[in-house]
Amino acid sequence: MGSRVRAFPRLIRTIFTTTARVVAGRKEIVAPPPIPGKLHDLIFAFRQSKVLFAACDLGVFDVLHESDAPQSAEDISSKLTTNVDATTRFMDALVALELLEKTKQGKSWLYSNTEMAKQFLTKSSPDSVDGYIRHSNQLLYPLFGGTGSMAYTLCQYYPNMKITVCDLQSVVDSAYHFRPSLEDCPNQGNVSHVVGNFFQPDLPKADLYVMSRILHDWTKEKVDLILSNVFKCLPSGGCLLIAERFLNKDKTGPKSHLLQCSICLCRWRERNEQQQNTSSF
Ligand SMILES: C[S@@+](CC[C@H](N)C(=O)[O-])C[C@H]1O[C@@H](n2cnc3c(N)ncnc32)[C@H](O)[C@@H]1O
């Protein structure tokens, strides 16, 4: 014990002098700034979704609902025929996401559904969104997506999804210039490009249509036509996601949006948020 105590100052001195030598011999090492929490959350958000999707696929919430009492990880794993250790970690992840509760009984930890899981995630509940969650995990997404940058980002986060980028002939013709390499985007094979015109009713079929920065500069009549064409193609239960940036109240910003050449040079029908909310879509 005594020799260990004496060894400490020597160890600290050694670390200190070694570090000083390393710093003296090299350029100063500047630590990168920490990733902002919001960005970090966005980067990792898909992991949370994936845990939820896997729990629904395995039927975790149903297994817990079917038994009267909370269950141990061993009980759950034997019903799901899954590995016990992996199941324990998986149950704990679901507790961290506040989808399950964990209580101690004697020496065992037991798991049960939270009220939210009972109401929305068990198949037998009248409010169940289980089908919607499974559906969300494997969708076909066509987009009026220009050269496809959003599509190539999406395919990295959702590797099971088939994505079709739909645009005018001239844009589809040049899209291959913008295809990322296999090395940069291993799932790029899930993205295809087709010619389509949103003023025509024969758009490619999809479960979800994403229209990003499409509606903002068309007149009310044109917007109605585009939306009715998309609506005609939507299957029952299908969705349309609209993503837009709005000008501020007096239409003097945001600058990056204001200066977009399509707005400045072409039609100039840009709306602010208030106008968007009171228009027909
Ligand atoms: C502002 S860009 C938005 C591109 C992409 N969605 C994004 O968020 O980056 C508008 C896109 O709509 C396409 N577009 C314009 N008229 C169209 C039409 N009639 N049918 C299909 N696409 C059209 C353009 O070629 C362009 O790629």
TrEMBL record:
* EC numbers: 2.1.1.4
- GO biological process: what's one of them? methylation
Instruction: Say which enzyme class the record assigns.
Output: transferase
Q: Which domain of life is it from?
A: Eukaryota
Domain O-methyltransferase dimerisation span(s) in chain numbering: 41-122
Q: Name one GO molecular function term.
A: protein dimerization activity
Q: Could you tell me which residue ranges the O-methyltransferase C-terminal domain spans? A: 139-274
From the UniProt annotation, give the residues forming the signal peptide. Answer: none
Q: What does this protein do?
A: Catalyzes the transfer of a methyl group onto N-acetylserotonin, producing melatonin (N-acetyl-5-methoxytryptamine).
UniProt protein name: Acetylserotonin O-methyltransferase
| Originating organism | Desmophyllum pertusum
